[in-house]
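Quick check before the chapter quiz. The format below is the same one you will see on the exam, so make sure you can read both the input and the output lines.
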Amino acid sequence: KKNEVHKFVANASVDFVKVVPELVKRGFLLAIATHSDVIEYTEEIPREEHLIGDDLVKHLLEALFPPHISAKFFTVAYNTSRRRDLVNPGKVHHMKLISNHYSM
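Here is the expected output.
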């Protein structure tokens, strides 16, 4: 829930918070691949009250890092089972999009 997102942010790994600025400084390409997906918003789980998928990732990154760092992340928030994607099981879809985004 949106009113509890501070708990999610507070549970971010200290190591993650420490390493990301160093990775940016060294020129690493950053991405987040999650099964949390905006398709999960429903009447029972409205966007006005909850943070899911890209919305949640954006909030987390903006809470943890300054804009010049949070903007470096490419995010893929896609739930293969909710989208009934049988061609791209697991995080295959995520990795394809990340590879394409970074021209790999």
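If your answer matched, good. Helices lie at 5-10, 14-25, 54-64, 67-70, 92-101.
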